[in-house]
Amino acid sequence: MTDLHGFNSAPAEQLRPLLTECLAVPRWVDAVLAGRPYATEDDLLAASDAAAELSDDEVHAAIAGHPRIGEKSSHGGVSAKWSAAEQSGVASSLADRLKAANAAYEERFGHIYLVCATGLSGERMLDDLAARMANDPRAELRVVNAELRKIAALRLRKVLRNHDTQGS
């Protein structure tokens, strides 16, 4: 599918795997599918955003498939391609600093650091990670939820444009 019409008319079983690659939360996938047909792309994105107010358990489940910033996904598939492109601003020269920062973050919060990395440099991500270390764990989960919402919207746009939606 290359447009909203194709998204609206595609069989749910065809869309479900692609939507899961956007945000691996079954309730969100079901809500986005149930909202069809969408009159505009903005309507789709608004429905996605509304459904992406996730529980703590859903946030943890959704981030489970994301690679650490600066690392490649071990899962393969479409989301691995998307993640690599989204993290393209991370210079390899930052690898050691990112690894150490990721480890400190994971020790503090018990999960990987997640940010919508599109358009961000590695330095900017390191700054963001450092600032977020001051959050309490509950507040940080809400920040992660907001980042997941941004990632879902970005990836939904890719689905609508049939941009790299074929797995490896």
From TrEMBL:
Pfam families per record: OHCU_decarbox (PF09349)
InterPro entries assigned: OHCU_decarboxylase, OHCU_decarboxylase-2, OHCU_decarboxylase_sf
Signal peptide: none
BP terms from Gene Ontology: purine nucleobase metabolic process; urate catabolic process
Broad enzyme group: lyase
GO molecular function: 2-oxo-4-hydroxy-4-carboxy-5-ureidoimidazoline decarboxylase activity
NCBIfam families in the cross-refs: PRK13798.1 (NF010372), UraD_2 (TIGR03180)
Protein name (record): 2-oxo-4-hydroxy-4-carboxy-5-ureidoimidazoline decarboxylase
Organism listed in the record: Saccharothrix variisporea
